[in-house]
Amino acid sequence: MKQILFVCTGNTCRSSMSEGLFKDLLDRKEIRNVNVKSAGVFAMEGNSASREAIEILKREGIDISNHRSKTIDRKLLEESDLILTMTSGHKNILLRTYPLVKEKIYTLKEYAFGVEEDIIDPYGKGLRAYNEAKDEIKEALEKIVEKI
């Protein structure tokens, strides 16, 4: 089974939304051989997804209310076949700390579209920003699912 890991800063906004959206997309396409996880480079272990992330995905019919943040660690990186970060900053932090991931790490947009652009950070910016981030993520994930 292939494992995909989504990474952001605190694992309460972008990566948790990515995990929820991708699990839903895989389920709708009846793809069962992919395990999806998320974590944060500076996450506080055990926090729930942000209220806004939960609300935005609820509008999509996806429930991430049980999500709990995880801090990235070597084991999680080693177990992952593909690591998708929300920004080039996240990617660079992981490459400096864990050079072993260099063959399997990309920004989300880099893997989807071949351009290393960041997913906007909605943290503290209200529901509109969360919806924009969700739309960016969803567009990328729809390309990525075709590559699996």
TrEMBL record:
One of its GO terms (molecular function) is protein tyrosine phosphatase activity. It comes from the Bacteria. Keywords: Hydrolase, Protein phosphatase. Coiled coil: none annotated. Belongs to the low molecular weight phosphotyrosine protein phosphatase family. This is Low molecular weight protein arginine phosphatase. Residues 2-147 form the Phosphotyrosine protein phosphatase I domain. SUPFAM superfamilies: Phosphotyrosine protein phosphatases I. InterPro entries: LMW_PTPase, Ptyr_pPase, Ptyr_pPase_sf, Tyr_phospatase_low_mol_wt. SMART domains: LMWPc. The active site is at C8, R14, D121. The lineage of its organism: Bacteria, Bacillati, Bacillota, Tissierellia, Tissierellales. The keyword Hydrolase applies. It comes from Anaerosalibacter massiliensis.
